[in-house]
Amino acid sequence: MIDRATSVATTVAAVGCGSIAGVLLAFSISVMPALSSRSAPDAITTMQRINVAIVSPMFLTLFLGAAVAASTAAVGALISASGSPVLIVAGALLYVIGCVLVTVAINVPLNDALAAVDPSNQADADVWSNYLVRWTRWNHARTGAAFAACVLFTIAS
């Protein structure tokens, strides 16, 4: 029973981590470069709207569901000690720490700070360049973590 549940959780984690990696990759290779070519007030306004829209039931279910599946797979792999527990636990740690924790500890606070910015105020608009560099750098990190977790879960499946 535990082996079957672990197998299902591992597959769900692989799909979830891969899906989130794709969403985050889209930001790294298209959204943020496109915003960097806009004026600060336009980029700030757009990113503020994106940050509201992304917090949707669909995204949150996928983002947090992948974390639950990854954690469930890791616990199951450790309990049953069959299959590939090292790969599964490593995948779970990569996703939970490298993607979820980075999001909560770094990207969300940056988003919250940007939400308080008035795009029409030049002093506030200067915040954009720092935000763009830091947010994008950490987005690359969480994209890599989610992708690597997907690979590990896929190999372990």
Mean pLDDT: 94
Helical coverage, percent range: over 70%
Q: What class do helices, strands and sheet pairing give?
A: mainly alpha
Radius of gyration: 18 Å
Along the chain, the helix and strand elements come as HHHHHH
Specify the overall morphology: elongated
Residue fraction in strands: under 5%
- Please report the total strand number as a whole number: 0
Question: Spans with pLDDT under 50 lasting ≥5 residues?
Answer: none
Total helices: the number is: 6
Distance between the termini: 16 Å
Major sheet attributes:
none
Number of structural units classed as domains: 1
Structural notes for this entry:
Helix 3 runs antiparallel to helix 4 (85-115). This protein is mainly alpha-helical. It is elongated. It has helices at 2-36, 40-53, 57-80, 85-115, 122-125, 127-156. The protein has 6 helices and no strands. The protein has one domain (2-156). The longest helix has 35 residues, at 2-36.
Topology record:
Blueprint: H1 2-36, H2 40-53, H3 57-80, H4 85-115, H5 122-125, H6 127-156
Helix pairs in contact: 1-3, 1-6, 3-4, 4-6
Features:
157 residues; mainly alpha; 6 helices; elongated
